Amino acid sequence: RTRHNLANVHGKPGQALLEHEWLMSVRARASVPGGACAFDVPSYHAWQQRPPEQRLEDMKLWCGYLRPLEAALQVMLGLLRETGQSQQVLASKGTYQMQLTGRSFQLVRVLPVDPQAIPEMSANQYLMWLRFTRQEGAAKPKPIDRDVAFTIELCNF
């Protein structure tokens, strides 16, 4: 069904959004600081004044152009996740390194046992480095300086 829906898309998925003049004018102004003000894009301001139900219907229509692509990506990501080689690992004092030795992966999943441990990853062709942080209030996340158990999945077609 997903393949059928994607095959029936005329042109590129989402092309209708790129050809929607009003959306593209709002998009162009929104990228400029303060560019989506009422005096800059009065039609956008007028659209925002419409009833929520009407705006929701517009957004559903616009998102509908991307549904075939979303479904295809969900299938592909599901298949990719199924290829994962799962390992239970311990990040000593909140950090973990893994040599890649020529291996490449399309997806690396990091699943900490502690839901408060936030993984940050950096990698190049030789090494993957993980550090775990925790969020405390409004400040930026702070490094965790204790051992963190987690599962790592290396996925590749």
How would you sum up this structure, described in words?
There is one protein chain. This protein is of the alpha+beta class and 157 residues long. It has two domains: 75 residues, no CATH class; 72 residues, YacF-like (Sandwich). Helix content is 36%, strand content 27%. The chain has six helices and seven strands; from the N terminus they run H-H-H-H-H-H-E-E-E-E-E-E-E. The strands form two sheets. Strands 2, 4, 5 and 6 form a four-stranded antiparallel beta sheet that branches. It has a three-stranded antiparallel beta sheet with strand order 1-7-3, with helices on one face. The radius of gyration is 22 Å and the shape is extended.
- SSE topology string: HHHHHHEEEEEEE
**Number of DSSP helical runs:** 6
Which percent range describes the beta-strand content? Answer: 25-35%
Low-confidence stretches: none
Tertiary shape:
extended
Q: In total, how many domains does the architecture comprise?
A: 2
Helix share of residues? 25-40%
Oligomer: single chain
Taking all Cα atoms into account, the compactness measure Rg is 22 Å
Class from helix and strand fractions: alpha+beta
Task: Please give the alpha-carbon distance between the first and last residues.
Answer: 22 Å
Mean pLDDT: 90
Number of DSSP strand runs: 7
Main sheet properties: 4 strands, antiparallel
